[in-house]
Design goal:
Strand content: 35-45%
Structural class: alpha+beta
Number of strands: 10
Largest sheet: 7 strands, antiparallel
Shape: globular
Radius of gyration: 20 Å
Helix content: 10-25%
Length: 113
């Protein structure tokens, strides 16, 4: 019976060690710039990550009521937000890699559409 308990504890330790190995962080997107802007839409571009990233996540905060959209997953280093109402927005970007995500960045100025 002692061997069985030992094996269970050993297996649990291995699983916990594996889970910790998967928790990684990565660099936030670099050089996020506005490519174009028109009524109701805005397009951004940023530098490709330097290896290890799988995709990016983007979202916005509407300043008039502090509504925060859900994160949207994108597989390239550019994105266009469409269908936005006139007003001010804060746009946020982060990188997804190896089981973790970077901290998010916000473009320097609030954008008014």
């Amino acid at each position: 019976m002692k061997k069985t308990i030992f094996l269970v504890l050993f297996a649990m330790t291995m699983v916990l060690a594996f889970a910790n190995e998967c928790e990684t962080t990565c660099d936030a997107p670099n050089n996020v710039v506005v490519v174009s802007k028109s009524s109701g839409s805005i397009s951004f571009d940023w530098d490709d990550c330097a290896g290890g990233c799988l995709e990016y996540e983007v979202r916005y905060v509407r300043l008039s009521d502090n509504y925060t959209s859900s994160w949207r997953t994108v597989s390239s280093s550019d994105y266009s937000f469409t269908g936005l109402s006139d007003g001010g927005y804060e746009f946020q970007f982060r990188t997804v890699c190896g089981g973790g995500v970077s901290g998010f960045i916000v473009i320097e100025d609030n954008v008014w559409l």
